[in-house]
Amino acid sequence: MQTATHPDLTVETDNTTRDDAPGAVSPADAPAHAPLPGRPSHDSVRAKILEAAAANFEEFGYAGTNLRTIASDAGFTKGAVYSNFGSKPDLFCQVATERMSGAGADVFASLTPVLATAADRRELVEGLGRALTQSLLGYTAWELIIAEFRGLAPTDPQVAAGYAALSRERIDRLIELLVTSPLLAELADPDLRSLAAGALGLLNVMAVDHIAAPEVYTEAFITEIVTHAVEGLIR
Known about the structure:
single chain, 235 residues, mainly alpha, two-stranded antiparallel ribbon, 64% helix, elongated
């Protein structure tokens, strides 16, 4: 038994297996994309880093999170984080995107039945107001972290670039859902983009206000605000 080192981690390998043993595969015959024995796949490394990063961002916020702790929690070196994500802003954007539309955790899932069943514009506006508020209240922690991230953008070019990319991703994701409604599919692209960007911007502000003053920004009050905003945006 000997120790084999790897840029991302240290693992134990057994060198007693002969290349000509039954069932053995020589390096030349192994698929080029297959990970080495005892070495995690690229996708596995990324997934573990994303999971550790999400937990750290949620607990400590953006500024309070450091890559060394994320790497340690994931079981890899700090170099593994940089080789997979490049920078802290890049990693944050990936995590935020995963949290927005990851498997089983679609932030906008509550919009789907409204968009599919609304019979007229009034029903659509009221349904979107309620559904967007529900998505907001289930996502307040991340909206707060995104607001923190945005606040750093004016003084940090990397954060600014990351926030711009994240904003485009969020807007595009919402537009994909909105056009599934026959009542909205007829809107021109600039109008759809204005609706999506306006709704997301308002939801982010409302999320922060709801956390800071929940007795003022109640669910009913936020629903009323969002409904009026949506009505104005789709006229």
